[in-house]
Each structure stands twice: as C-alpha cells, then as structure tokens.
Design a protein that fits this description.
The protein has 541 residues and is of the alpha+beta class. 27% of the residues lie in helices and 21% in strands. The strands form eight sheets. It has a six-stranded mixed beta sheet with strand order 15-21-14-20-18-19. The chain starts with 18 loop residues before the first strand and ends with a strand.
Length: 541
C-alpha cells in the first residue's frame, strides 16, 4: 500500500539522491549462491541503543536491524515502514499512523505501545539521549526533557495495538522524515527492562524488527555480523543472508583486504582516492556531513574570547586541506549547513547563509587577533589539546590543524587521537579543550544542523551561547513554522550569527570515496544521513 498524505518538503527541497553501490539492479541479474556481504567501517560500533546512538556507525547498523513508522526512499522521501499508511489533520498538528502486523526477532508483536515506550524513553531526561531534542515539536516533549512533566504526557498515544496517534505543538513540514530516524524507532519494553544498563551493549541484549538482526557483536569487538531476520514482515524480499562488518582503521590494510577478496567494499583515504578514481569500482559519494572544530567555552576565558576563536579559524587554509590533505571529494565548508542540503526558490542555503570571514584564510589578521586575545585574557602564552578520532582521517586532520595553529604566536597545540567511542564520551562530558567532530544531517532541512547550537541543546558540547540565535531558532520552529519565507530568513540569520561569532570553526564538507566490488548490487546510499540500506542488496554473479 502507498502511504497516504505523504508531505513533501515544499519550499525546502533536498538535492540528495539515492545512489546504488554498483550499477545494475534489474530483475534479470543472477544471484550468487553465497549471499554474504563483507563491508568495511572506519570505526567500531559504539551502541545498539537507539535512544543513545549519535554516530554514523550505530545509525547505519540500527537502520538495518530496526524499522520505524516510515522509511527513507528516493530523494529523501518517505515510504511505508511499520506504518502501512498514515493521515494528517487539516491543521497539520495530528498524525495517525496505521501499523501493519509485524514481529520482533524473538517473535513478539510490534505494537503501537512499542512506539509509545520507545519515544517516552528517549525524551526521558534520565535516559540521557542526545537526540531527544529531535522530539521538541511533539506535544509536551520540551517540558518532559526539562523534568517539568511526566513522560506519560508526551504527545503519542496507542489506539489499540496497531494505531499510533501523534500530537504536535505546531505543524512541522518535515515530520515524516523525523519518524524515519532511528531515534524514533520502537523499543520492546520487556527486553529493555530485562537487560537494564546492558541493553544494546552486545548482540544478545536486544531484539530487532528490521530486515536483519545483529547476531555477533561483543560490545567491544572490531567485527559484527548482521543476519537476515526471518521475522521481518518483508523478509521474502531480503536477499542477503549475512553482512559482516569489520572496523579497519588503517587504509592500506583495508585496501589489501579488498584486493584479496576479504572485503567487498572499503572507504578510501589519503592518496587512495587519487590512485583509484579512474577504476570501474570507484564510487565518489556525496555527503551531507561537515567536519568542524568545537571549542570548549566553559573551560576557560581564552575560548570565550571571540578574537581567539576567530584567529583559530582565520589561520586555517581550508582549500589546501581539502585539495592536498584530503583529496577525496571533500569541499570547503561554508557553515554548519552543507551545500545541497536545502534549496529554496533555486537558492542553496549554504550560499545564502554564510559570511566570507568565517572561512577565509588570513594568517596576518589571525596573528593580530590572537595577540589581542592573549592580552585581553591576561596571558603571555596559551596551550591546548586538540582531540579527534584515531582514524586515518582524524589523524590527518589534527596534524594539519596543528601545523596551521602553530603559526599563531605563543601557542602550543598537543594532539590527542582517541578511539571513536572514547572521543564521543569525552566530547559529551565536556572533557576537551578543542575537538574535531563530524555531524551528518538527519533530514533535509537546515534546522537539523542549526538546532545543535542553541544554548540548551545537549549536543552543544562547546557551550557556545547566544540569546539572539536561540530566539531565531525558536521563531523558525514555532511562530514561523508555516511561513516558509520568514522561516528561511530566521535560519539564514541564525547561521550568520553562529559564524560571525565563530561559535564553531567549519572545516570541510565530507566526501565519501569507496571501492565496491562489481558483484555487489542494490545497496542504497542516503547522502543526507550518510547511511546505507541493505534490505534490497544482493551478491550477483
């Protein structure tokens, strides 16, 4: 059945497209006997608790082992998931989702109450979800997150076993794309309570309602395995029997494993993209992920000094970084909102919402501002530790930034490259001076990026704060929610404030170069969330 009343994004449209990992998905393609796909990841799997997951690796695994009310399809549109259809009220504030009969991997029924519980658990402040803010437009969510109302008051109700009714504070044009996110997936209350703190920490401490189930993962292993889920409602159309993931941090090791046939798909870095860009198995993916530097403004006065922040940005030569260091299709970031994410009246938000000074390269100006910042904060010198992942990309980035920042007088930079999971934990806890981080848009609207930096957002790890910025984001999500032009201007003005104040330091918009064996067919890639859907994939002959 087709989904009823699917809302298009109206004046804000995405340029993102769905690409296949290998050409040729016709029904006439022959399938190999062994339907096992081997896939590289650059980092280990941090969690399988969809209330706590914030990273791409967890999101990708959850997206293939779970399913929400709706699923992403071509051009970031939505199509049926657990909900076979839905309706929307005339005022745009009430959605009613009609669920299909489906099961968890342990045989339990997937019911409306599973969605109610999952949503309530995510917004519950005791859970500590960094993605709870995505629920802000659901009735009473903000009050619940602040501990002012009970989780039972959240605007989601189960009407019997197979109907979910959601009430919003105001109309949200992109709401269908929100419920397709892993943070909105259902949760089996019995299983969550059975495992307690161990829920989602290994393969056995969870159940799955998606096309695959996680059958091997210790919680710390560099390898994990997905196996076809026979209880999935559309299992008959899932062709792969297994997907074996391996976290390979060294690019040369990954390439050797690809060439020897141990891996069917790998990510390229360093000189590899340049060496293989003419290969028939090379794929240059577009991405809506941005690399930026967050500065801990809570820790000391130097990072609260706007001149110091501007100096750290100005001294970076971003063109040199993307062209000489990365050379993987990455682009210079113009802000936190990536190019191609949102278009209105033919104009790209990334171009309209930027200011040149935020990403220009001017060493002399940077040195002048840095000296002034030292004087204003009563310092003769300054030192900080720059934290990032221990991946090849993370190390290349910190080494480059360190070399550029060393051009500032009386400034010492020490690099600290940590395992992905450790870096995430320390970032969330505010245990850093400066951190290189990446953010991938969750849905095709600027608010997915800009809402991160409101004063009360849990993902605002650097604690930058600006009252005017907060007001503009609030207006865009409330007063002007149904006024496209005014809302667009709110968001443009907000990003310009963030950039002028150098609340963050944008570095680059990520490229995602890959080598994928030609036998791999039907893998779907979503640039908006840098995510993959393996439910239609298969190994051809």
């Amino acid at each position: 059945m087709k989904v009823k009343s699917i809302v298009k994004l109206g004046t804000v449209a995405a340029l993102a497209t769905v690409s296949l990992a290998a050409c040729g998905t016709s029904s006439g393609s022959k399938q190999a006997k062994d339907q096992t796909l081997t896939w590289m990841e650059a980092s280990t799997l941090p969690t399988m608790d969809n209330s706590l997951a914030t990273d791409v690796v967890s999101g990708e695994t959850l997206n293939n082992t779970g399913e929400g009310l709706l699923k992403f399809g071509k051009n970031s549109s939505t199509h049926p998931g657990v909900a076979k259809s839905y309706t929307k009220s005339k005022d745009g504030k009430t959605y009613t989702f009609n669920l299909r009969k489906s099961n968890w991997s342990n045989g339990d029924k997937v019911t409306a109450q599973n969605f109610v519980y999952g949503w309530q658990r995510t917004v519950n402040p005791k859970t500590g979800s960094q993605y709870a803010y995505l629920y802000a437009d659901v009735q009473n969510a903000n009050a619940i997150m602040k501990g002012k109302k009970a989780v039972s008051t959240l605007g989601i109700k189960a009407v019997g076993d197979y109907k979910v009714k959601v009430t919003l504070v105001h109309p949200v044009s992109y709401f269908p794309t929100l419920v397709a996110q892993t943070a909105f997936f259902p949760q089996n209350e019995t299983v969550v309570k059975k495992y307690g703190k161990k829920f989602g920490t290994n393969a056995k401490s969870n159940v799955y309602n998606g096309a695959f189930k996680l059958t091997y993962w210790t919680g710390t292993s560099d390898n994990w395995t997905l196996t076809k889920n026979p209880k999935y409602w559309n299992a008959k159309n899932v062709k792969l029997h297994q997907i074996k993931f391996s976290a390979v941090k060294d690019p040369q090791t990954a390439l050797s494993q690809y060439q020897s046939g141990k891996l069917d798909a790998i990510y390229l870095s360093g000189q590899q993209p340049k060496n293989y860009k003419n290969d028939k198995e090379y794929h240059a993916r577009n991405s809506s992920r941005v690399t930026y530097i967050e500065l801990n403004e809570k820790k000391d006065s130097m990072m609260r000094n706007v001149k110091a922040r501007q100096a750290l940005s100005l001294v970076l030569n971003r063109k040199q970084f993307v062209n000489k260091v990365m050379d993987d299709g990455s682009k210079v970031a113009t802000g936190i909102v990536t190019s191609g994410l949102a278009i209105r009246n033919g104009k790209d938000f990334a171009k309209e919402g930027t200011i040149p000074a935020a990403t220009e390269h001017n060493v002399a100006k940077a040195q002048k501002l840095w000296k002034e910042a030292l004087k204003e904060t009563g310092r003769k010198n300054y030192a900080l530790t720059l934290m990032a992942d221990d991946t090849a990309q993370g190390k290349s980035t910190t080494e480059y930034v360190q070399s550029q920042w060393s051009k500032l007088p009386n400034f010492k930079v020490t690099n600290s490259n940590l395992p992905y999971k450790t870096r995430l934990t320390r970032s969330a806890a505010g245990q850093f001076d400066a951190v290189v981080t990446l953010w991938g848009a969750d849905f095709p609207d600027p608010i997915t990026d800009l809402s991160l930096f409101t004063s009360d957002n849990t993902y605002n790890n650097g604690k930058w704060s600006n009252k005017t910025y907060d007001k503009l984001i609030n207006e865009a999500t409330t007063t002007n929610a149904n006024k496209p032009a005014a809302r667009w201007q709110n968001l443009i003005d907000a990003q310009k404030i963030l950039l002028k104040d150098q609340g963050i330091i944008p570095v680059s918009q990520s490229g995602k170069p890959q080598l994928v064996k030609s036998k791999v067919k039907g893998v779907i890639y979503f640039p908006v969330s840098s995510n993959w859907d393996f439910s239609k994939a298969y190994i051809g002959k």
